[in-house]
Amino acid sequence: MSRYGSVTATSPQEAAEWSTGRVVRSNLRAVVGRAYPRIIGLTREPSWLFFEIVLPFLAVSAFVFVYRALEAPEEFIGFVVLGGAMTAFWLNVVWMMAAQFYWEKDQGNLELYFTAPMHLMSVLAGMAIGGLVMTSSRALAVIGIGSLLYGVTYDIEQPILLAGVFLLTMIPLYGMGMLFASLFLLWGREAFHLAELLQEPIYFLGGVNFPLARLPGAVVGAVMATLPLGVGLDAMRQLAFSSSGVEGVLPVSLEIAILAIMGVLFLIAARMALGYLEHLARREGRLTLRWQ
Amino acid sequence: MAVTDRALPVRGVTLADAWRSFRTAIGLGWAIESNWSDPFLFAIYTMAKPLAAAGILVVMFQVITQGQGNEFLQFLIVGSALWNVVFGVMSGLVQSILEDRERYRMMKYVVVTPSSLFPFLLGRSLARVLLSFVAVVLTMAVGVVFLGVELRPNVLYLVPATLIGVLAVIALGVFMAGWCLQLRQEAWHYPEAIAGALYLVSGAIFPIDVLPNALHPIAYASPTTWWLEASRRGLLGHGSPGALGGLSDGTVMLLLIASTAVAIPLALAAFAWFMRRARQAGLLDMVTGS
To answer: Among A126, A223, B43, B222, which residue carries the largest CB count within 10 Å?
Structure first.
């Protein structure tokens, strides 16, 4: 018979009846278990650290040199460095959240997730927390090296608000990653193409290398309604370069409200998409087939 | 155990064998790249990525110059368009070899066939290379139609520059493919890292004069620098702003030929050595779980 702690179940029915506390503890263990490899990977796979700093940094450097060649004002260099740091989070969301379930299926882990006594949202939450910690180190390195090497000066009047906006941006950003994780899996072999598609076009639409307000109004409107990277970056630029007269799309307070609403909506959408995915997995059984 | 010597002499790979491998691999590469995808999504993917990359540069240019200085914009568009080929070739060759080893686990079977891996690899990656040329044409077309890029093509200069330049880029890709065969999980990142580093030093989107002095020797040694410069002259009728623009057309072509002539034999020798080492170390069927 099944044992849990000091309690021994006397029948399968009794063993299947979990208390709320046991459900919560199991799901928390799943969160920690899924976050663990990403956090511990910081020290176990130093080559990843190298690449994940170097790749965004190379891109940042190229755009810095374009602005230098154009003799742009110095604050634009700072925009690029900040944008480059946020790119690290976006890449993490696309490749290690959105595409993750697809990779898990290829490696044969997905069926284990479905059969384990936990909610898949716990796995996604663990991936998000681990990814956030892992990517923060990369983003800080890009900001640190970029700022030192290219002489970026920041003018931060409200550091706590800036930190708050950053954290608030991460909620819809990773919520979007959770939603995409289910969608990518449903779309099967397109996962790689989709992940590729979500890079340069999103950097363009999100104003990663230039002020978002310079894009046409309709595009900016669509970005403000759908893309947390663009909204968060616009708010952070206004707070990090406050004396430069940087032109934001909306006041920071309004962008904070948009991020908060996006956070709730993306998490709900992710929960619904996972429910649908689980339904499909049980009904059709094709989600465990590799390379599909 | 890794097998390095053959028990019996074999007749060697004929040109017909190589051609058959190359042709079959083209079909396979195209199937993997396109037919397995939804055509609509594939078309969007093929168009959106290069156009967005160029779009970023165009907006940056417009923000700073308010549209003044069309010569620099043309420089940006051509560089951004042509860079698709460098990235397409490098990622095509490397990802083909890694996918066949790690994902589809076919590498060892290809290697033990009578044919050589080399023509298979070239054919397998050709789809991505061709797609990168589609991206070039698209980006240039958008530049001409919407952004006022004025093409003054000099075919006699452009065609040899393109042929030699693409050969140089393929040589770099072959070198990278052999190198990545030696690596573990991080191998997938290498094409992006190397292409990113070359993007920085080759004057793709800014004149190399802007680079720190320490990087100038690398910029001048890279065949991609001379290919981009020669292509700009062949397409636009003038060179880049800055020091490279001051060189004569003949000098640029000569430097492109010289750097390619060095790159090709070095890449082939390195690839042969990498393959030999992969056989000895049993790396051809290594699965890293990445």
So the answer is: A126
Which residues of B are less than 8 Å from A55 in CB distance?
Answer: 189, 192-193, 196
For B126-160, what is each residue's pLDDT tens digit?
A: 888 888 899 999 999 999 999 989 999 999 999 99
**pLDDT band at residue B258 under the 50/70/90 scheme:** very high
CB A271 within 8 A of CB A121: yes
- Alpha-carbon distance values, B223 to A108, A237, B138, B140, B193 (Å): 43, 38, 24, 22, 17
Structural domain includes residue A43: yes
Q: Which of B45, B60, B196 sits opposite A196 (nearest CB)?
A: B45
Alpha-carbon span B100 to B180, nearest angstrom? 12
Number of domains in chain B: 1
Q: For residue B86, tell me if it sits in a domain.
A: yes
In a domain, B38, yes or no: yes
Indicate which of B37, B83, B99, B104 best probes the interface with A, i.e. most A CBs within 10 Å of its own CB. B37
Q: Rounded distance, CA B100 to CA B279, Å?
A: 16
- A214 and chain B in contact, CB less than 8 A: yes
Residue B73 token pair: 């914009």
Percent of chain A predicted with pLDDT > 70: 92
CB neighbours of B78 closer than 8 A, spacing ≥ 6? B140, B143, B149, B228, B231, B232, B235, B236
**Residue A190 belongs to some domain of the structure:** yes
CA–CA dist B94, B125 (Å, integer)? 8
Write down the pTM of the prediction: 0.85
ipTM of the modeled complex: 0.85
Tokens of B172: 């770099």
A65 versus A137: which is more confidently predicted? A65
Boundaries of domain holding B274: 15-281
